[in-house]
Amino acid sequence: MSDLKELCSGLPLDPLPPNRGRDPNVPHAPVRTPNLTAEEERLALRNALRYFPSSHHSTLASEFAKELRQYGHIYMYRFCPAARMRAYPIDQYPCHTRQAAAMMLMIMNNLDPAVAQFPQELVTYGGNGQVFSNWAQFRLAMRYLSEMTEEQTLVMYSGHPMGLFPSLPSSPRAIITNGMVIPNYSSREQYERMFALGVSMYGQMTAGSYCYIGPQGIVHGTVLTVLNAGRRYLGTDDLRGRVFVTSGLGGMSGAQAKATVIAGCVGVIAEVDEAPLRKRHEQGWVMEVTSSLEQCIKRIREARNSKTPLSLGYHGNVVDLWERLLLEFERTGELLVDLGSDQTSLHNPYNGGYYPASLSFRQANQLMSTDPGRFQSIVQESLRRHIKAINKLSDAGMFFWDYGNAFLLEAQRAGAEVSKVGGGATEFRYPSYVQHIMGDIFSLGFGPFRWVCTSGDPQDLAVTDDIAAKVLEEIAANVSERVRQQYRDNIRWIREAGKHKMVVGSQARILYSDQKGRVCIALAINRAVADGRVSAPVVISRDHHDVSGTDSPFRETSNVYDGSAFCADMAVQNFVGDAFRGATWVALHNGGGVGWGEVINGGFGLLLDGSDEAAKRARLMLNWDVSNGVARRCWSGNTNAYETIQRTMEENRQLRVTMPFPVQDEHVLDRALQG
Fold first, then answer.
1. Three-state DSSP class for 437?
2. Is residue 545 part of a domain?
3. Cys bridge to 216: 289, 377, 502, 594, which one at CB 3.0-4.6 A?
4. What sections of 125-168 are H helices per DSSP?
5. Residue 283 and residue 502: Cα distance in Å, rounded?
6. Looking at residue 233, which CATH number applies to its domain?
7. Nearest to 214 by CA among 116, 311, 132
8. 345-377: per-residue pLDDT in tens?
9. DSSP-derived pairing of the beta strands 447-453 and 538-542
10. What's the first-to-final CA gap in the chain, in angstroms?
């Protein structure tokens, strides 16, 4: 408790804390290369010093300048707390309102070393998904939250706490924006500059909105993706003996190993960085580890033949793995891979998101900072090799999809052969997983709903798991077969979730649910908090990667074909609508998943404290949070969304959506245009 009081007391200035520098025992973000001019360096330093009284400027200026030149950013390591970062039980936070305490818990979970990718650089996942830009911002935000009343709102500008402003009790307690840059200046180069200056920030999705729940948050989505890929591409629900090859075991990509085993197949996941590979192995998410390509081939054959689920972590470059699988096919005629994808952080290809095949991990980290231009050329050459091997294996019968990480987009920019003949602006040789797999699920209203038990008690999580399962079982009895399949997958997931030991950090759970399921689960959990079956409030949230939360033409909205895939009205409307319908906090971000300038996305947190007011907020906000996206997808011409929103209007007479009248006869268009 004393540690939390110290964290919430603001910036420690009298005396200044000792400068312990970077902790060698935790992973660190790659060195950034903003290429600032001399005048911009002065501006970055001036911007950093304004957090502190002028009496400290002479002491801090030299070390901040050193950080800027050595790491490409001023993180203010001196102010990184010595206290253990984790999600403490909600009642331990010194504050005036539980809504504020809930946000403090979620922030500290995002920075827990067991959860965060680069904790001292305040990066939760994705290589550059920041919670804050520097440690002064963290300390100020925690102080504001500890002082906040229910008539104030904390305003966050790209990591910077602008302050507490008077508001209504019904208002959100925090409004967060990250990377809201004027569109013509939203380029990758401008981002590096603005981040170094300390004026903007890449919040990824749930990093900057304080809603990350560890890799479990993507495990379930990956399970559903692999299961539905098997149904679509292989024509089966039974994936025993089937092989899925991919890459990445860092932040969100760390979910892939766990997901493949839950789905029942053989997963081979390449990772160049030994630290996350070792971390996932120690957590039990990766069953076996090898740095030998020959051992990979041997274990793939053994697991295929025995039809034994396996997660095999290959310590090496995924390009080498793909080329070895191709060589085996060319030598023997045996195709050892059925399904393929990639989860390297290609939204950030030249600053640690993608490691080229021709360099070691250490060599790549050195070259990206000493010669960025040469490093970029080597990355693009590696991407061309990467795609060449995939193309040949695909021609042999493997099914490959883009995982929404800008893999095909960056491969295209590198000159790789990924174009689709006659394809639209968002189409490539291979589909994104939204276009072929998850898009239909979104159009049915299903998406990644989640909750966090703020007591920190595993028993509370077990109770909420049981509540959610019973709610879904009751609803599933009265839905169409298409929807029932999704319910069956999710009931199985939630019934088995505890045994898979997926909790890392906060006591959290995720499942995919539609609008009715989300509302009913939230109300049932709120009742359980009220009657004491759950011992403390519960935060409900979702991934931004959802039905309504994200406009991303190469991922979430890649299956929108009416020309609006590059429009961001849905995500912005969702952010605003959640805010005035009862969310405890809301966030809107530029970037996330596919990269800066490629996406607008938003999220929320809502505290269920057992009150009637919480129930009212949950019902109103969650209905909007799903219907908004289903209505947009319906208007774009998606038949699943049409049927879903039609059914929702029948159940809720206050909902009235403009419905499209599709052109039935294409000759009408031909005659009109020829005339």
1. helix
2. yes
3. 502
4. 135-147
5. 9
6. 3.40.50.10730
7. 116
8. 888 889 888 999 999 999 999 999 899 999 999
9. antiparallel
10. 77
Q: Rounded to whole angstroms, how far apart are CA atoms 209 and 190?
A: 22
pLDDT digits (tens, 9 = 90+) for 383-439: 999 999 999 999 999 999 988 778 998 999 999 999 988 888 788 999 887 777 777
Instruction: Give the Cα separation of 40 and 36 in Å (integer).
Output: 5
pLDDT at res. 592: 82
From the centroid of its chain, how far is CA 461?
22
Which CATH number does the domain housing residue 516 bear? 3.40.1770.10
Q: What is the CA radius of gyration of the chain?
A: 24
- CB 36: neighbour CB atoms within 10 A? 18
Q: What pLDDT score was predicted for residue 333?
A: 96
Structure tokens at 531: 């009657």
Domain contains 422: no
CA distance 144 to 9: 9
Residues 37 and 125 in one domain: yes
Mean pLDDT for the chain overall:
94
Cβ neighbourhood burial of 477 (10 Å; 0-12, 13-18, 19+): exposed
CA 437 to chain centre: 18
Q: Are 507 and 457 in contact (CB under 8 A)?
A: yes
Query: For 95-104, 483-492, 633-642, which range has the lowest pLDDT when averaged over its residues?
Result: 483-492
Write out pLDDT tens, residues 193-230: 999 999 999 999 999 999 999 878 788 888 888 988 99
Of 51-55, 402-406, 411-415, 509-513, where does mean pLDDT reach its minimum? Answer: 402-406
Per-residue CA distances from 650 to 473, 487, 565, 637, 647 (Å):
22, 21, 28, 20, 5
Structural domain that includes position 324 = 215-371+381-414
Residues 6 or more apart whose CB falls under 8 angstroms from that of 13 comprise: 52, 53, 56
Mean pLDDT confidence for 100-126:
96
Number of domains in the chain: 3
pTM of the model: 0.89
Half-sphere exposure of 663 (CA within 13 A, CB side): 9
